[in-house]
Amino acid sequence: MKENIIMNKSYAFALRITKLYKYLISEQKEHVLSKQVLRSGTSIGALVKEAEHAQSKADFINKMNIALKEANETEYWLMLLKDSKYIDENSFNSIHPESVELIKLLASIVKSSKGKIEN
């Protein structure tokens, strides 16, 4: 069976986001932004998993497109957490490239899947 790169990367990212959430609520006592980043950061992988058994190509594209939106939203929350000093520059620089990579992968999947429908 072929390795599912987006599934593996989105799951690993969700684990990192979960650890970030635990840090934010226990060490920083931050409960609002942390819930936002937890929700959006973990939903990426959940949507990718849902897309695995999509009912149609259009359903697959829709789920992957929503995952892309969640990845974009997660990037926003990460930038806000950094700029509001809830996470330091090193922590941000550690996790941010993963969010950017997920955005690029998901955008590519959506684009190529839409291209296959049009052809």
Radius of gyration: 15 Å
Helix residue percentage: over 70%
Order of helices and strands: HHHH
Percent of residues in beta strands: under 5%
Sketch the major β-sheet.
none
Q: What is the mean predicted local confidence, pLDDT? A: 96
Task: Find the structural class using helix and strand composition.
Answer: mainly alpha
Low-pLDDT ranges: none
Number of helices: 4
Tally of DSSP β-strands: 0
Gap from first CA to last CA = 27 Å
Query: What form results from the Cα inertia axes?
Result: elongated
Question: Would you kindly provide a written description of the structure presented here, covering whatever features stand out?
Answer:
The chain is elongated, with a radius of gyration of 15 Å. 33% of the residues are buried. With 119 residues, the protein is mainly alpha-helical. α1 (5-26) packs antiparallel against α2, α1 (5-26) packs antiparallel against α4 (89-118) and α2 (32-51) packs antiparallel against α3. The protein contains 4 helices and no strands.
Task: Detail the topology: elements first, then pairings.
Layout: H1 5-26, H2 32-51, H3 57-83, H4 89-118
Helix pairs in contact: 1-2, 1-4, 2-3, 3-4
Quick gist of this model?
The protein is mostly helical and 119 residues long.
